[in-house]
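Go through this fold for my students:
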Amino acid sequence: MNLNPRQLNLLGVVRSRGSATVEKLAEKLGVTLQTVRRDIQRLDEAGLLTRFHGGARVPSSTTENIAHQQRESLNALGKTRIARAVAAQIPNDCSLILNIGTTIEAVAKALLHHTGLRVITNNLNVATILSSNLDCEVIVAGGVVRARDLGIVGEAAITFIEQFKVDIALIGISGIEDDGSLRDYDYREVRVAQTIIRHAREVWLVADSSKFNRPAMVAVASLSQIDRLYTDAPPPDPFPALLADAQVCCEIALT
């Protein structure tokens, strides 16, 4: 599912308030009740909102992400734009760490024509994608493989990553809350991500626009620990001010 700007705005309104009625959403967005109902149904089917009679609310769970296959198809066009923008800024002959996430996997696909890369990853999907690039060396962290998305987590992955210091860490995230915190669902994944951040000279965050105001249980980092953010639409308030205060370079991939 590729979200259009109206659906992204609707999603942002509901997430900022926790819930909203169809009438309030129609008034806020300047569209018909029928349009709002149709958008809510699509967002509910994608697992991004939960419908109730007369409105929508954020999904009740802050402890578990939606399925990997759903995330792959969700806003796929926006993730592809982000991936192209990131790849255009990554030089050949550099070292990278790529972590877990479908946007990160899109970046891996966009790097298939780079040369001289040395890539460390705790994501078997990323390793599979980049192993077809004969000019790229792929190093896979050891640890526990999560069956649902082939991410590698746990103490062994942390210990492995601590050996390295790379030029750029590319990290994905499940949610960015309005206090500037970056959040995810699995504390084991979070601990690996925190290690990745510490062992990179620059940290680039990739997050499509559905991640703003999305709640998740575990804090990964703050925006002040990020050097660049790549997203596919202008962030809603209060994020422009938060990004400016944290001195994060925000790149909006529109093409």
Observations:
- The first strand starts at residue 19 and ends at 21.
- The chain has a mean pLDDT of 92.
- The chain has two domains: 5-57, 68-252.
